[in-house]
Amino acid sequence: MNASVSKESLDARDRPARLTVGVVGAGRVGPALAASLRLAGHRPVAVSGVSDASVRRAAALLPDVPLVTPGEVLARAELVLLTVPDDALPGLVEGLAETGAVRPGQLLVHTSGRYGTRVLDPALRAGALPLALHPAMTFTGSSVDVQRLEGCSFGVTAPEELRLAAEALVIEMGGEPEWIAEESRPLYHAALALGANHLVTLVAQSMELLRKAGVGAPDRMLGPLLGAALDNALRSGDAALTGPVARGDAGTVSAHIHELRAHAPQTVAGYLAMARATADRALDHGLLKPELAEDLLGVLSDSNAVNGTNGTHGPDESGPGEKR
């Protein structure tokens, strides 16, 4: 970073931190963050959004804040939140820089988990102060998101001279800063997607299967179970593993695959992948006995389970390890 930008960074850090705030991209994240900054005393002054849903979110979370073009957002705001999809972010930053919309000393914050501050280099060359602040939270696009930011961890990447400014903004939004190195951002984001996004898919599939099994309130049945499983996993890691895979109950797993193929074939591949991963972790941590693992892994093998030979029978058919 050049000397002039370093000086501007220090000036931005030391000045009274009541800022005018703009949002480029009124998706689920931007309006919630701006509303949270408003509670901390900052002043949202402009927001951009195209879709009807974006307009409604902006009106609900940022009432009386004018809806303008992205260029006008940058013209009005000292702190600009770039809250657009990951794939759109590089082009947006380049376009804003090329059109002269970026002003020296302007705090430019993106909320992508994938990128660090390098994606903001075109704006940095125009004199902007780059921050990457990614809230590790799922957003609904409603006012509940502002409440959920309390205690939420943020993946933060920033130049060293902007470290205090980044921490201050996160804390003002009720969050906890967690520093992520530039080169670690993709891995960090993959970890969150694996844990959160895939969890939603698994829960939705589980609820569908319970309905097919005749359960009237699958959400009520799953709530205590999943809450306990999550709490145990966060406290104990792999030691919290339970269930037929960790126990080596090959016959039960075989019956599961048979039923899934019959009633929800689209779930078989995911079940097999997660069961294999669970078996590997259970073996590594001494939870799955090696003498039981062979039959279990046979049931889970691609050539058998996917093609419908070994491992696809029900409880009244051939046993594990035998062909039908």
Automatic annotation (TrEMBL):
UniProt xrefs under Pfam families: DUF2520, Rossmann-like
Polar residues: bias regions: 302-312
Taxonomic source organism: Streptomyces atroolivaceus
Region of interest (Disordered), ranges: 302-324
Protein name, as recorded: Rossmann-like and DUF2520 domain-containing protein
Start-end of Basic and acidic residues biased regions: 314-324
Annotated ranges, domain DUF2520: 152-278
Stretches assigned to the Putative oxidoreductase/dehydrogenase Rossmann-like domain: 14-135
